[in-house]
Design a protein that fits this description.
- The strands form two sheets. Strands 1, 2, 5 and 7 form a four-stranded mixed beta sheet that branches.
- The protein has four helices and seven strands, in the order H-E-E-H-E-E-H-E-E-E-H.
- By secondary structure, it is an alpha+beta fold.
- The radius of gyration is 26 Å and the shape is elongated.
- It binds iron/sulfur cluster (2 copies).
- The site of one iron/sulfur cluster has 14 residues, from helix 2.
């Protein structure tokens, strides 16, 4: 029994080695398909849901931040990275006046983004080169975090789907 198990393990190991080598050889011999990216000249787009930097969403039409200074993000932050202030305006609505996020202690957990019920905070995926020479530079204010959502291009597929969709009764 031990004798057969011994040879079974030997052949299993050899088989796994050959499978691994076949994968390596496939990439080694395929000279045309170069997978190495020449960063920073070549940059791959990051997945839309990647977490790079947190931004404060600015409504360009209303010419103001979406933030209403409800403090929910600051309360949700486990590292107390967020400090902000707000005022109540003449129309009775609260508006953020100052917003500071210390990225040197941020762990990018996303609790602040999740806690915000006013579409005022978001992760952006395109800003990932965040190295600085001075730690203090990682303390960003509302001006550094200002982000305007890019206009969505009209999708021909969406238009086709909408046109093809049956009308909902009673809608
Ligand atoms: S991502 Fe997490 S650690 Fe960073 S500011 Fe938001 S809640 Fe705080
Ligand atoms: S960013 Fe969102 S959660 Fe934080 S204070 Fe502003 S509105 Fe409230």
């Amino acid at each position: 029994m031990g004798f057969f198990k011994y040879f079974k393990n030997v052949f299993s190991g050899l088989w796994n080695l050959l499978v691994g080598l076949s994968v390596t050889s496939k990439y080694f011999l395929n000279f045309k398909a170069v997978t190495t990216q020449q960063y920073p000249e070549e940059r791959l787009p990051l997945p839309a849901r990647s977490r790079s930097m947190i931004k404060l969403i600015y409504d360009d039409e209303k010419d103001q931040f979406n933030c209403v200074a409800c403090l929910m993000c600051a309360k949700a932050c486990p590292n107390s990275c967020i400090k902000l202030e707000g005022v109540r305006q003449a129309d009775g609505k609260r508006r953020m006046t100052t917003f500071k996020l210390d990225f040197s202690t941020c762990i990018f957990c996303g609790y602040c983004v999740e806690a915000c019920g006013f579409d005022a905070l978001t992760f952006v995926s395109e800003e990932y080169e965040n190295s600085v020479y001075k730690r203090g530079s990682l303390l960003q204010d509302e001006n550094a975090m200002k982000w305007i959502r890019p206009a969505q291009p009209a999708s021909p597929e969406a238009a086709t789907t909408e046109a093809a969709a049956p009308a909902v009764a009673g809608a």
